[in-house]
Predict the 3D structure of the following.
Amino acid sequence: MLHECDTLSVERFHGVISDAGIGPSVELIKEVVRRGAERGEARAEAMHPCVRDVIPAMTI
């Protein structure tokens, strides 16, 4: 779909997806994993950005 849009439309679409979807999801996941690590229910390595980015990527 994006390859059919002009550059300005692609940039706006990307901004909407990042600001309204992916960004808040990553922040929420980061907070949940941080809390789990503090309680000993998750490993500290789970705070790595690559791990945090997997869940929003899978939902899209």
